[in-house]
């Protein structure tokens, strides 16, 4: 069977812009959470976010693209540029129809969309940007990356809320197995504006604690919801043989196992699908739970969801059976970008032999019986399991192998 | 419907192109571009739609929708706007 490997990473995260800045901050436990500055959140119950700071769009995006792109798409284009540069791949050397783009999205470019809808209502149709025709659309990151790099391979967008980052990588692997040499994948999201905020408040899962150090405490006794963030990761997924042939400088690891499940409808009494996703991903990788060296948890930060995940981990690995971490405590939950960033982080952990910490959570609720890593921990890592759950019943699991 | 006396110059147009749609790398809009097709300047129909929207708002005029297709160069677009075919909105 064809092997799909990751040869390039591009990261835009609230606690670091660029892979090495992010990774350094993450290992040091430096959080990017803080009061919302992208809009006036004063009237809302939740006022903490993980914002990508120090990002100057004009430094990264050509002027022709500025009027037609949302903040989200600019971050995605920047991360894609970095992933390709990191991989050292020259897309013009590849077959014209050889490279695809598969990214994850949630609500699309809601900040751009909100602005133009406000223009429509308050000023009239003459004031709506012509670029509203596509700039808001949830497939826009895939489209703009594809156009910018002239990539005509199989492309698409996956919407499974927070699980999307993993599902996009699973789908990229399918394309590799069909014979395409490379796929740009992952996810970048940015919805820190009223239109992106209000539906998340309505879910009832968002934290209303307005202290950045106490707002998002997954697996803690004090867990009280999640904090949203923006950013994510773009990964270059490549056929291992093709990467070898072109002399790829870095192979971060293999996408060894992937599975996705959907929870049963509420009220059926059947168990949630996270465990089945994890088991299927392990089976797909041809390994057993004992081979997993670290788990990057979904870490919802909502007590019931944390309990369900901790029970799944205990059932799979035994009590305190495997190191579990949630570096997303330093970025917030990044919607479609979150699981992609977790996979990138897992690959960096494998590379350097260190488990990044879960920040701000002093210790897990003893009832959870998991080995929650709260300080960076050195370890010989070969396999990492990344878990993600998306609102609406989506579960996804990915095994990466060094 | 009354005709308008507004006059839009090439300098006005290039300023609005930059503001509405940006400027393609390697293209000098301050050069001799009056007869250069918009496509060669890096502007597609959406970019033209965007700049025409700005012209309409700034000058309070209405430019026919088919200008996007018919006016292939800055000169042609300016001629259309300044000929009086554009109407006061």
TrEMBL record, chain A:
UniProt-listed InterPro entries: Beta-ketoacyl_synthase (IPR000794), Ketoacyl_synth_C (IPR014031), Ketoacyl_synth_N (IPR014030), PKS_Beta-ketoAc_synthase_dom (IPR020841), Thiolase-like (IPR016039)
Presence of keyword Acyltransferase: yes
Enzyme Commission number(s) of this protein: 2.3.1.-
Keyword tags: Acyltransferase, Transferase
Domain Ketosynthase family 3 (KS3) span(s) in chain numbering: 1-402
Keyword Transferase: yes
Pfam families in alphabetical order: ketoacyl-synt (PF00109), Ketoacyl-synt_C (PF02801)
Highest taxon of the lineage: Bacteria
Entry GO MF terms: acyltransferase activity
Family: Belongs to the thiolase-like superfamily. Beta-ketoacyl-ACP synthases family.
The protein's name: Act minimal PKS chain-length factor (CLF/KS beta)
UniProt source species: Streptomyces clavifer
Automatic annotation (TrEMBL), chain B:
Protein name: Act minimal PKS acyl carrier protein
Top-level taxon of origin: Bacteria
Signal peptide range: none
Source organism of the structure: Streptomyces clavifer
The Carrier domain, residue ranges: 8-85
Keywords: Phosphopantetheine, Phosphoprotein
């Amino acid at each position: 069977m064809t092997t799909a490997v990751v040869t390039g990473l591009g990261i835009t995260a609230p606690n670091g812009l660029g892979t090495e800045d992010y990774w350094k901050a993450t290992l040091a436990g430096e959080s990017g959470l803080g009061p919302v500055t992208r809009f006036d959140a004063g009237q809302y119950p939740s006022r903490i976010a993980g914002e990508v700071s120090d990002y100057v769009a004009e430094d990264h995006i050509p002027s022709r693209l500025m009027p037609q792109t949302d903040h989200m798409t600019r971050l995605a284009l920047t991360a894609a540029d970095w992933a390709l540069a990191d991989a050292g791949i020259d897309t013009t050397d590849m077959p014209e129809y050889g490279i695809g783009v598969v990214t994850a999205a949630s609500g699309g470019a809601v900040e751009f969309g909100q602005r133009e809808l406000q223009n429509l209502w308050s000023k009239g149709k003459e004031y709506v940007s012509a670029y509203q025709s596509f700039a808001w659309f949830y497939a826009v990151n895939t489209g703009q990356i594809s156009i910018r790099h002239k990539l005509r391979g199989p492309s698409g967008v996956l919407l499974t809320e927070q699980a999307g980052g993993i599902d996009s990588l699973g789908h990229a692997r399918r394309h590799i197995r069909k014979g395409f040499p490379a796929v740009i994948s992952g996810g970048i999201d940015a919805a820190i504006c009223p239109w992106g905020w209000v539906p998340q408040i309505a879910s009832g899962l968002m934290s209303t604690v307005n202290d950045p150090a106490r707002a998002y405490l997954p697996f803690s006794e004090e867990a009280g919801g999640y904090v949203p963030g923006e950013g994510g990761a773009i990964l270059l997924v490549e056929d291992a043989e093709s990467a070898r042939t072109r002399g790829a400088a870095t192979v971060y690891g293999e996408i060894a196992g992937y599975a996705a499940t959907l929870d049963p409808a509420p009220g059926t009494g059947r168990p949630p699908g996270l465990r089945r996703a994890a088991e299927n991903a392990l089976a797909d990788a041809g390994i057993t739970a004992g081979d997993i060296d670290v788990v990057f948890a979904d870490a919802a930060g909502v007590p019931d969801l944390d309990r369900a995940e901790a029970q799944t981990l205990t059932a799979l690995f035994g009590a305190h059976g495997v190191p579990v971490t949630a570096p997303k405590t330093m970025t917030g939950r990044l919607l479609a970008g979150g699981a992609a960033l977790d996979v990138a982080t897992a690959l960096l952990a494998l590379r350097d032999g260190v488990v990044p910490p879960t920040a701000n959570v002093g210790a897990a609720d003893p009832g959870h019986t998991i080995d929650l890593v709260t300080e960076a921990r050195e370890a010989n890592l070969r396999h990492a399991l990344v878990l993600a759950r998306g609102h609406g019943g989506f579960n996804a699991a990915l095994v990466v192998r060094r | 419907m009354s005709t308008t006396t507004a006059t839009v110059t090439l300098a006005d147009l290039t300023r609005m192109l930059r503001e509405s749609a940006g400027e393609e790398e390697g293209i000098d809009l301050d050069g001799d571009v009056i007869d250069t097709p918009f496509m060669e300047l890096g502007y597609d129909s959406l970019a033209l739609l965007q700049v025409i929207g700005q012209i309409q708002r700034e000058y309070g005029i209405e430019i026919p929708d088919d200008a996007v297709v018919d006016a292939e160069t800055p000169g042609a677009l300016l001629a259309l706007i300044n000929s009086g075919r554009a109407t006061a909105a």
